[in-house]
Design brief:
The protein has 13 helices and twelve strands. 36% of the residues lie in helices and 15% in strands. α7 packs parallel to α8 and α7 packs across α11. The N terminus is likely disordered. The protein starts with 5 loop residues before the first helix and ends in a 6-residue tail after the last helix.
């Protein structure tokens, strides 16, 4: 923290930052502090709030707030009771994880929704299925807002990288058929040798191994933290790949330029953000029917959808897409249009309604 901030924080710590302003006129938008997707989402929504004329505070103020507003893009912040004290108003993004699936962290999150249902002013969900899950917790439906996880088209559609130059810099043969997977699908923030099965890394590896048998020039481009399981299993299957442990989420944008296809093999999702990222980048997308993909992807028009766990369909659809480049071009064009309709700027009316009555003008 910059040294100049410390005296200010110390001076207000006892009373709470809310003593500096009228009640509930400032909002603090915070991510998970990991520097990956949720942190980027918080940063983007801070910008949206500012563009709407709201008073926005840095995330570092969150522990000191009193009688102000906290909006967390990380649903696991629900597990920290302190945000429900100090007379703050609280909002949270709740993207995925159904209770009763044997995943303790999701059960605990849903239990906290029930416990604090009268203290949570807004819940942001990205698709209808999760909207139902949240409402089943007892949260009043009028407090729930469904807004897709948006994309920064300026970032993903305007990369200065050219395909040939990028592939050369990454050591990928120009003739390779490149499939991308940019996500976190291991448990924890370490090597990720234990798979996070909800993200479908086991399905991904099996599909890629089958495609490699049919497409000898197949090459896999990976990014994202905790990919140890996928890397290990690709090594076992003899599938060539490159994993880039990038310094930030923003650095992922240029990687799409190297791809022929992006695959989502998840069992459940809130987004994934890759749906709109690949569309904005002009990369063909095949996704399982998960999260907001079910509402943004129109099969055969702007991408392709297959049933969760249907590995045969994933393999067959990937072969078709890679084998019919001319027929794929209109789908890529439609995907770009879908992405343009779901930028943060395009969603401003939805976010204005989200913040109305939560943050005072």
């Amino acid at each position: 923290m910059p040294g100049g901030d410390r005296p200010v924080l110390r001076s207000v710590a006892a009373k709470g930052v809310g003593c500096l302003w009228r009640p509930h006129t400032r909002v603090c938008v915070r991510g998970d502090g990991a520097g990956w997707v949720l942190s980027r989402e918080a940063q983007s929504l801070q910008g949206v709030a500012k563009s709407l004329g709201l008073g926005v505070l840095s995330a570092r103020w969150a522990p000191f707030l009193h009688r102000q507003c906290v909006f967390s893009t990380d649903q696991f912040a629900l597990l920290n009771d302190r945000y429900f004290t100090a007379e703050n108003r609280y909002a949270v993004s709740y993207f995925h994880g159904r209770p009763g699936q044997g995943v303790a962290e999701f059960d605990r999150c849903h239990a906290q929704l029930k416990r604090f249902k009268n203290h949570i002013w807004r819940v942001h969900v990205s698709h209808r299925a999760m909207e139902r899950v949240v409402c089943e917790s007892g949260i009043a439906p009028e407090r729930v807002r469904r807004i897709p996880i948006a994309v920064d088209c300026d970032l993903f559609a305007s990369s200065h990288w050219k395909r040939d130059t990028l592939r050369q810099s990454l050591g990928i043969p120009e003739s390779a058929v490149v499939i991308g997977s940019f996500q976190k699908d291991g448990v924890g923030w370490g090597d990720g040798l234990e798979p996070k099965l909800i993200k479908g890394p086991d399905i991904l590896v099996r599909v890629l191994a089958r495609l490699r048998a049919r497409l000898p020039e197949l090459f896999v481009l990976l990014s994202g933290p905790a990919r140890g399981y996928v890397r290990r299993e690709l090594d076992k299957a003899g599938v060539p790949y490159r994993h880039l442990d990038l310094p930030s989420y923003e650095a992922v944008a240029g990687l799409y330029r190297a791809l022929d296809l992006y695959l989502v093999t998840s069992r459940e999702e809130g987004g994934p953000k890759a749906v709109l990222e690949s569309m904005a980048s002009g990369v063909p997308l095949i996704s399982t029917r998960v999260g907001q993909a079910t509402e943004l992807v129109e099969h055969g028009r702007n991408g392709w959808l297959v049933d969760v766990g249907d590995e045969d369909a994933l393999v067959a659809q990937a072969e078709w897409v890679l084998g019919h480049p001319a027929e794929v071009e209109p789908v890529k064009t439609a995907g770009r249009a879908t992405a343009a309709q779901n930028t943060y700027a395009a969603q401003r009316p939805l976010w204005r309604e989200f913040f109305a009555g939560f943050v005072e003008p």
